[in-house]
Task: inverse folding
């Protein structure tokens, strides 16, 4: 007869400072206090509960950015996860600050692959073994270089290069525990859903990985994707929902006997409010409201940014502001640096900050028409349409009609001139994209130097936007057909 034990794993990912509930269809949706209420209720009513977060607790809220993540850690301490892994936005305030924040956390933060290049020392504990009801549950934290691109600015910090290297690292850790009776193994990843599937394919069944709980791609699922016998899940983004595994663990064979997984909405209809954690959040909010409540500008209507890999009204606005303010021929504004799907019509300093939280340098890079065309073709490659590459909002004057089948531009002009030849254009690039120029644009940055050395033209892209909007009212922007994709 099998020895079966119950295990419930609750999981979130990409919380992004989504601290406060919203009123939608006459009910409160999301927010940390309702999320905490659901977790507390589950812990009280169900045996053997573990709550895990698969990266990106930080960013998205003025409460987070004003206190550089320290407020978030205090709120997370009250939420009390059992284990958390590193996401790409955990390093936004710098590696040194992250190590400081980690010391403030009252829960384990695990990561198997960030290390110091000079001696190979890991920055974090690579795994956590949680003992519960006589079971030993092993969690391993994974992120890859593609996701952790901002770490390239930290010259002494290295990361696992790709998914295959991540699989090898997992194998080493799992092999190290063969002599210990690990009943259940969880990969807590922040590499995106498609990469999770690739990772699962690479895992040796002998390593005993039971489930993969992921993040980064904000994937919403109706049911787990099972690859190589391993269920893979995510829980969307923010606090509007939580993932829940109810598992029967075969502790004789150290594997899943059966399981049920649910994507559970967090609303005031099914979650009691945790009033104590609400008080902590409101204490921070009352302070930030004083600074961030002022009105910066007003739009004619709400401007939207519904997805990254297409031209958007909000994207056009910010790209145009940067182009005009900085005297550029073309601004390539990173779609991913626009963190909200809509803004306006009244734009407060707080809403603007939440929408554009990554204040950073803007670099001018001088490129020929031929080089720009190659850069744009790289951006429009097949991976762009699955949402796994960097994409850009382009300022006015550009006209692109791209054929997916031909993988070529049918039209590619800037200010009415075909992108062909050696005419040099001044292109604006944000710092994160400049630091990853060769990977993100498909050409070597050194190749552009013959046109003139790149230079910093603004120390803060946010200041550029804020200054322009503060001096302009009743602002408007529309989708003009700057980027058209045809089959």
Result:
């Amino acid at each position: 007869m099998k020895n079966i034990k119950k295990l419930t794993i609750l999981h979130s990912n990409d919380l992004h400072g989504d601290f406060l509930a919203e009123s939608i269809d006459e009910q409160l949706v999301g927010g940390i206090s309702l999320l905490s209420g659901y977790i507390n209720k589950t812990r009280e009513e169900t045996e053997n509960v573990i709550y895990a977060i698969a990266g990106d607790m930080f960013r998205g809220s003025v409460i987070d950015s004003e206190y550089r993540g320290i407020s978030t850690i205090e709120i997370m301490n009250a939420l009390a996860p059992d284990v958390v892994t590193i996401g790409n936005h955990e390093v936004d305030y710098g590696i040194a600050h992250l190590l400081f924040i980690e010391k403030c956390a009252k829960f384990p933060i695990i990561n198997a692959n960030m290390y110091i290049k000079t001696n190979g020392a890991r920055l974090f504990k690579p795994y956590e073994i949680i003992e519960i009801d006589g079971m030993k549950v092993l969690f391993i934290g994974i992120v890859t270089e593609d996701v952790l691109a901002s770490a390239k600015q930290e010259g002494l910090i290295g990361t696992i290069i790709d998914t295959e290297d991540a699989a090898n690292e997992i194998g080493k850790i799992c092999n190290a525990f063969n002599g210990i009776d690990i009943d259940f193994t969880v990969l807590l990843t922040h590499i995106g859903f498609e990469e999770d599937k690739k990772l699962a394919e690479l895992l040796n069944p002998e390593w005993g990985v039971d489930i993969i709980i992921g993040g980064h791609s904000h994937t919403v699922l109706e049911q787990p994707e099972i690859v190589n016998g391993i269920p893979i899940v995510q829980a969307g983004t923010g606090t509007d929902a939580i993932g829940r595994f109810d598992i029967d663990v075969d502790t004789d064979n150290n594997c899943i006997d059966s399981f049920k997984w649910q994507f559970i909405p967090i609303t005031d209809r099914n979650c009691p409010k945790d009033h104590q954690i609400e008080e902590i959040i409101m204490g921070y909010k009352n302070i930030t409201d004083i600074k961030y409540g002022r009105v910066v500008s007003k739009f004619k209507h709400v401007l939207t940014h519904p997805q990254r890999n297409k031209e958007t009204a909000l994207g056009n606005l910010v790209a145009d502001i940067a182009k005009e303010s900085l005297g550029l021929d073309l601004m390539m504004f990173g779609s991913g640096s626009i963190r909200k799907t809509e803004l306006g019509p009244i734009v407060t300093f707080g809403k603007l900050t939440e929408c554009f939280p990554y204040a950073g340098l803007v670099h001018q890079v001088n490129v020929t028409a031929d080089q720009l065309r190659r850069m744009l073709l790289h951006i429009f490659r097949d991976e762009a349409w699955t949402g796994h590459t960097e994409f850009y909002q382009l300022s006015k004057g550009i006209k692109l009609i791209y054929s997916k089948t031909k993988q070529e531009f049918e039209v590619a002009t800037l200010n009415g001139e075909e992108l062909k030849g050696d005419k040099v254009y001044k292109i604006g690039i944000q710092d994160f994209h400049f630091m990853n120029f060769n990977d993100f644009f498909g050409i070597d940055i050194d190749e552009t130097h013959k046109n003139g050395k790149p230079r910093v033209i603004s120390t803060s892209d946010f200041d550029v936007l804020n200054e322009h909007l503060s001096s302009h009212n009743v602002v408007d922007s529309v989708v003009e057909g700057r980027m058209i994709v045809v089959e």
Summary: The chain has a mean pLDDT of 91. The longest helix spans residues 275-292. The radius of gyration is 23 Å.
